[in-house]
Amino acid sequence: MNDPATVLRALPPTALYDVFAEAANQLLAVYFSLLRAAASPDDEERLWKQIRAVRDLRYGVRPEEFDRQIELILAWQRERTELAAPGVYWRPA
Predict the structure, then answer these.
(1) 14-30, pLDDT tens digit by residue?
(2) How many Cβ atoms sit within 10 Å of the Cβ of residue 53?
């Protein structure tokens, strides 16, 4: 079985960018769900910072930056998995 980075590197550039954008959108959806359930203003501010960081990366990485896109796709997938772990609650948007 191929590792995810190898599979992503085999994609055409336009498909890779689509996967990159969708990975960002999926993580943003999780953050917005957590934001709706935030227990305190501090939690809200922390989540807004994370939302802004993902959004800035999503729009700041150029389409030709293939390695950076792959790095972020994998990191965002790991983060979504961690947020979905037992003990962490989020509702899909």
Answers:
(1) 999 999 999 999 999 99
(2) 11
